[in-house]
Each structure stands twice: as C-alpha cells, then as structure tokens.
Amino acid sequence: MSNVDLKKIEEAVKMILEAVGEDVEREGLLDTPKRVSKMYEEMFSGIHQDPREFFSTVFHEDHEELVLVKDIPFHSMCEHHLVPFYGKAHVAYIPRDGRVAGLSKLGRCVEAVARRPQLQERITSTVADSLMEMLTPYGVYVVIEAEHMCMTMRGLKKPGSKTVTSVARGIFETDDVKRKEVISFIQMS
Residues that bind Zn(2+), according to the entry (predicted)? Predict the structure, then answer.
C-alpha cells in the first residue's frame, strides 16, 4: 500500500505548470499532473522501505573472501533540486562466519536507498551501514559513480561529469591490501 498522496502531487504539478506560464488545459499537458504523480510514486517508493530488510535472510557458506557485485545501475532524485542523478554502484563485502547474502539483495538494497529524495553520499553510507549491521562482515566497501542532472542541465552545465563517492567499513578502513584489491576488481572491465 502506497503512502503517496497522488491527488496532492497532481495539484502541485498543475500549480507549477501554471506558475511557469503554461496552459494546463492544452492537449499535451492535460494528463501530465497524473503522469507525474504516478512517476513520483514509483521514484520515491523507497521512502518507507528499510534497506536492511534485504539482509534479514542469510545463507551460510564456507567463504570468507571478497564478494563484489559491481556495475549495479541505479537512479535517484537529488533532494536539493528534485532532478535525477543516475549511475552505477559497486558493493563489496568480506563475509564473517560464512554469513552471505543473496547476490540480488545487494542490488535491491541500492535500489531501495536510491528511491527517495537523496544525496549520493547518503546512498553510499546507508548501503554500507545496512550490510555491516545485518551481516556483520569483516568489512564493506561501496563505490558509487553518478551523473547529476543538476550539474548537467543547470548551474555548472557540464554533461558527462561524474561524481564518485566511496565508503570503507571494517577491514577496508585499515587494510590497504584489501582496499587495493577491491578497487582493482571494480576497475576491471
């Protein structure tokens, strides 16, 4: 069940269109408020979702070496301008006591965190912290690369520029060899 007030969004979109001088009764805009409200419902579906829930089921496997899922595509909305940013996430961890998550759960966690008004830095930290809390691995390393439309469409106007954020937890904070290993795997084609 969605907590989104679709009617309120429709009214707000109509007001914005009117405020910029558009004719909300013209053919191309007649259903725009409804379409935008449905889009926002989908794009912000992670607001009331706890990303830790994806790690509530763990498997036990005799594996205490690096696990990396890279190039996880995502999109989000900048909370400062409500325009999209998108890119890819790389999520790595080293299991402790054989506690591993289903690989798809790493991508689902990224998606849930990204589907809310957001900052890239917060996505990176929240994904890492969710994994650390729920799996208690030796360490977690998350890297996110994204292009921000607020830098492409307005302000700086530099299309193609990427912002990279990373978070190291546990062993990746202190062990240069482990950190360099995960970075080299992320950089592989």
Answer: 78, 81, 150
**CB–CB of 59/100 below 8 Å?**
yes
What pLDDT does residue 157 have? 83
What is the per-residue burial (b if ≥16 Cβ within 10 Å, else e) of 56-85? eebeeeeeeebbbbbebebebbbeebeebb
Residue 90 annotated among the catalytic residues of the structure = no
Calpha distance 93→99 (Å, rounded): 11
Helix/strand/coil for 3: coil
* 148 part of the active site: yes
Report how far Cα 137 is from the mean position of its chain's Cα atoms.
Answer: 21
109 is in an annotated binding site: no
Residue 120 a catalytic site member? yes
Domains in the chain, please, with CATH?
Answer: 6-44 (1.10.286.10), 58-187 (3.30.1130.10)
150 annotated as ligand-binding: yes
DSSP 76-136: EEETTT--EEEEEEEEEEE-STTEE--HHHHHHHHHHHHSSEE-HHHHHHHHHHHHHHHH-
**Per-residue model confidence as pLDDT tens digits over 55-90:** 999 999 999 999 999 999 999 999 999 999 999 999
DSSP per residue, 141-181: EEEEEEEEHHHHTSTT--TT--EEEEEEEEHHHH-HHHHHH
